[in-house]
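Data deposition worksheet. Section B asks for the primary sequence of the deposited chain exactly as it was used as input, without tags or linkers unless they were present during the calculation. Section C holds the resulting structure in token form. Section D is free text for depositor observations; keep each observation to a single sentence. Incomplete worksheets are returned to the depositor.
Section A, Depositor: J.P.
Section B:
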Amino acid sequence: MLDALSIILVVIYFIIVLYIGFKASRKEDDEGFLLANRNVGTFVLTATIVASMVGGNMIVTTMAFVYEYGISFLWSAIGTLIGFLILALLAPTIKKLADKHKFYTLPDFIHQKYGKTASIPAAAVIFISYLGFLLIQFIAGGIVLSSITGWSYPFSIILIGVVVVAYITAAGFKAVIRTDVFQYFVIFLLAILAIFLFVNSGKITSESLRIFSAGPANIAAFLLYGIVVTITGAEIWQRIYAGKTEKIVKKSLIWSGFITAAILTIIVLIGLFVQSRFPNIVPETALVVGFSNLLPPYLLGIGLVILFAAIMSSLDTFLFVLSTSVSKDFLGKFDRLSRHNFATNTRICSIVFGIIGIILALLLTSIVSVILSIAGVYFALFAAVIFSFKYDLKAKAVVLSIIGGVLASVVSCIVIGISVESTLMSFPASFILLGIGQLVFKK
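Section C:
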């Protein structure tokens, strides 16, 4: 447990994000709640994309993989940058279609191109994956907050859930992006604090610095993870829809790619330095342990609060993506809902999934197993999405690709266990089945 100042900083942080969130709700219409009136500029768009990427998912899982694979996990940063650059090339097409057809979710894009039959499995993949992503943020946030304050893990989880649900139900997407801008600056402070960790941590072992040490299969998995999660990231597509112009969206994605890759590189280096000093700790707690033991006392409370803010920046994003997806893609059944009903349903879903996230976080704590399982499922979307920009795909082929990819991931996890290798199985399976579907379903 830290001193009273650290607890005060946490309370101040909660007050700031609640204030930002509730202020965003003033004079807000339904389109503002759902997508900030599709009028977001370059700086704010870049800030919200980076803040949504750099959260508990990235920080905690990076630490865990660095402990096992060393600097080889840096390939995921390269994959992330590649993914952003590819998405920047595709963004004008996405934005043009989104403005014309009023997209709100990634499955809206699939639905417009291939109809309801193809969009339902895509929506199911989004639901499963983002429920898992939400769970990771809750677990990571609970671990850090309980470390800062000495409060119990269950109480920390409940408090996080109440605060996030409160400002999302008040102002929706506008609250998410405004709190993201605040947390964007906080993330840069996290990078600055890394300097103090580097100074106080000692040396990195030469064995940990071998970039190819993880082996070809794992390196391919890390690269693909960065590329796929970026290109098919439902939260990033939502931000593309919200951008003011195609030019702004493209520029923001390029900036976001370089900034996110740089921050991920810093997190990998922090993980290596912490590992050199504390090789036998639980990997998911590495950053908390590193901050607690390597930061000067006068920076410790600030450092952990900044880490907590970085985690919160993704938690609200995943909760909103999950809520809008269920509201539009399942409750709305892809029909044209009135904006008011859509916004109302999204508010209700935010409360429901906030409660579900709290309950799951109290029951499950293995972050690495969750992220590997989710990645395998999420990879199944990639083939259908990326080829849709160049080829006229058949709806049944898209369905076969997505469902087959998910089943390949599930079966491989059952047969060989939850691992990086089993995660990869859905990737080739979805491509192969998409090709087979194109040949079989010719009409």
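Section D:
The two ends are 65 Å apart (CA to CA).
The chain has a mean pLDDT of 84.
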